[in-house]
Specification:
4 helices, 195 residues, three-stranded mixed β-sheet
Length: 195
């Protein structure tokens, strides 16, 4: 306690010390007043920055919505084009097959009696070759399966048979032809497999 009393006495006796304390209190008060003004300026500046950022965010939001709408329109348009393409993709092939159909109709309209039977068979054979040629130009190819190892991607086994000619797991007979369309299996071959 004595120290406090000594300090108070020193303050009372030394007027310059009192002036310093008063000046410090005035500075603190002035600082707190100017801090509030600065704070208000910063708040106003902050509101301006906030407004600018909000405008920028709104602009980005609008741009995002436009891009999303453009993408949705693009998706719908491409989906429609894909559907139309799928619907009319076979039109070229069908157009090429129409003459084959006409030839089959002519062949079937011809009476098959006696000597004409040979001509009928020859005509149907020619039509078959014409059809086969059209399909080959489109990329259709018959599989060669007899004597090949069984492959479930290309073959559909319908039965297993004992065979002295082939070892186990080899295709011995083709029951129904399999076809490839440009290296893709269009229809697997139905086969018998040796056991």
């Amino acid at each position: 306690m004595k120290e406090e009393e000594v300090q108070e006495m020193n303050e009372k006796n030394d007027p310059s010390m009192n002036d310093n304390l008063a000046a410090e209190e005035t500075d603190t008060t002035a600082d707190s007043g100017s801090f509030t003004a600065e704070e208000a300026g910063e708040a106003a500046s902050g509101n301006e920055e906030y407004r600018k950022l909000q405008e920028l965010a709104d602009e980005h939001q609008a741009r995002t919505l436009r891009v999303q709408a453009d993408f949705d329109n693009f998706r719908r348009r491409t989906q429609k084009e894909k559907e139309e393409l799928a619907q009319y993709a076979t039109s070229k092939l069908v157009t090429e097959l129409l003459p084959v159909m006409d030839n089959f109709e002519r062949a079937l309209a011809t009476p098959a009696a006696g000597a004409d039977a040979e001509a009928f068979i020859k005509g149907v054979n020619m039509i078959f070759r014409q059809l086969e040629g059209v399909l080959k130009t489109e990329g259709l190819k018959a599989m060669e399966v007899v004597g090949q190892p069984f492959n479930p991607e290309y073959h559909q086994a319908i039965m297993q048979v004992e065979s002295e000619e082939y070892e186990e797991g080899i295709v011995t007979e083709e029951v129904q032809k399999g076809y490839l369309l440009k290296d893709k299996v269009l229809r697997p071959a139905m086969v018998k497999v040796s056991m």
